[in-house]
Amino acid sequence: MASSTLICETQPWKALKAHVEDIKKTHLRDLMGDSERCKSMMLEFDGLFLDYSRQCGNQDTMAKLLELAEAAHLKEKIGKMYSGEHINNTEDRSVLHVALRAPRDAVMSSDGINVVPEVWKVLDKINEFSEKIRSGSWIGATGKALKDVVAVGIGGSFLGPLFVHTALQTDSEAVACGKGRQLRFLANVDPVDVAKSIAGLNPETTLVVVVSKTFTTAETMLNARTLREWISAALGPQAVAKHMVAVSTNLALVEQFGIDPNNAFAFWDWVGGRYSVCSAVGVLPLSLQYGFPLVEKFLKGASSIDKHFNSAPFEKNIPVLLGLLSVWNVSFLGYPARAILPYCQALEKFAPHIQQACVNSVSMESNGKGVSIDGVPLPFEAGEIDFGEPGTNGQHSFYQLIHQGRVIPCDFIGVVKSQQPVYLKGEVVSNHDELMSNFFAQPDALAYGKTAEQLLGEKVPQHLVPHKTFSGNRPSLSLLLPSLNAYNVGQLLAIYEHRVAVEGFVWGINSFDQWGVELGKSLASQVRKQLNKARTNGEPVEGFNYSTRTLLTKYLEGNSDVPSEPVTLLPKI
Question: What is catalyzed by this enzyme (predicted)?
Fold first, then answer.
């Protein structure tokens, strides 16, 4: 799959570079006046409606981007991903998260073996196990039903499942399925997060799901040991097997920990952490909360987009178009950031799943690279800085910046039917209509702006004109979902997963490894050893630069009351 030619050396890339000057001569308020152009930049698929007419470009731009996709061998690279070739070359692995939501009769192979039957073997096991828990046929050590679940994991083992759970919490069908149950997540090794995750819970009615592929992730395993102690202190060590299960491939360590290996749910090395929400990583805790039948609808929504991505012509392919537009904005127009703005409170954890840096994220961990897939330094900008907040909250936070400060392309995500409609007699519009009024208005405000001439025509005082002028010409796109149920949540997840893949394929980088997170972990290990020596033997801090040594010393002095061999102390909330 590797190519010795960087994409920036191809003719289509150079043609787009030259084309930038033409686009800079235009303004979106003029481009939006061309109805045929706007019509050509709209697309419908499976209930979704995409409008990218407020991107800074025209039909010629899109044609040139499609030529760039051809030069990048995008179709071939997508095919290699779906056929199970080891496109993650630095880790010598297939990239087959699409197999996690494939139909039972599909064939998707890695190393010559159809992995779909193994996927469904795990899904069937999750279905059976979650039904036992939900029905009360599996009970805790004291005979009580397990109605509360704490999922322990970090990065992709946390952000993706949390996004889906938050999106479903207010869906009427999911509310009915999850009645009387709680699902919480514990990710941060900060003891405050431990305290919050178990506050108000009874160990007798709690099931802990430990998510770690290798069962060695430092933060996750410390949190798992903490909750094991919480259960053991209340119910005795023998209760662990009844109250803790695992999502892992390391059955030896699972058993050594005290969890029955029969209660371990597998996933595979061809599943990257940030793409793992459709594996047992997400499906198990979500099924325990909502039941597998509802979670299966989520998988089917993702599968719908998987098929679309692999088969639709590029000019009608939502993830491909979104990926190409990101490349256009980042590498040609020079806009390195992207705001993800869902006008739906249920999607409040969607942007963190896409954006979160330094942990596991779909976009910034995947495409935050500075070298090509062949290890050649990139002479162009790649990767995006993602951030976001649900509307209208974001409007009172950072919209000042996107309207009158830096140019930041925006993704507006709207929902036609609210999960929780509210109507008040005498109001001009419903609550959801009020929300969506802003969804429709903000993209036009960014595109058109407001000129000094308009302001003077409105008799705005001269000294305020510079402050009230909006330059406009700020790109955005709008994605409209028919509703926000489990199926739609699956669609949205898959669209953004594949969009990231498209960007990486075009830029010629490996979107599926994550070496950038390793250095900090290694250095943290050295600090951990130093803290242990200082606590247990009183050894002075050494082996670090002056700054780090000073900080560590200050920290140790401020915590001098911590005993060298402390007794177990658990949160008190």
Answer: alpha-D-glucose 6-phosphate = beta-D-fructose 6-phosphate
pTM given for the model: 0.92
Contact 149, 181 (CB under 8 A): yes
The answer to whether the Cα torsion of 304, 307, 312, 316 is positive or negative is positive
Round to whole Å and give the CA distance between 445 and 161.
34
Which whole number is the average pLDDT over 513-524?
Answer: 71
Average pLDDT taken over every residue of the chain: 93
Which residue range forms the structural domain that includes residue 428? Answer: 27-86+312-511
Could you identify the residue written with the tokens 């995008």? 74
Span 267-281, pLDDT tens digits: 998 998 889 999 999
Both structure tokens of 402: 């996107």
Question: Is 138 domain-assigned?
Answer: yes
- Is residue 463 helix, strand or coil? helix
Q: Residue 435: in which H helix or E strand, if any?
A: helix 431-448
pLDDT over 70 at 2, yes or no: no
Q: Which two tokens stand for residue 200?
A: 């108000």
Q: Give the domain CATH number at 421.
A: 3.40.50.10490
- Is the same domain home to 188 and 241? yes
CA torsion sign for 423, 428, 434, 440 is positive
- CA dist 91 and 271 (Å) reads 12
Regarding whether 282 and 210 lie in a shared domain, the answer is yes
pLDDT score of 511:
81
The predicted pLDDT at position 368 comes to 56
Residues taking part in catalysis: 365, 396, 521
Burial of 486 (0-12, 13-18, 19+ CB in 10 A): buried
Six token digits for residue 148: 């509360």
| Mean pLDDT confidence for 30-45 | 98
Q: How confident is the model at residue 361 (pLDDT cuts 50, 70, 90)?
A: very low
C-alpha span between 459 and 448 (Å, rounded): 20
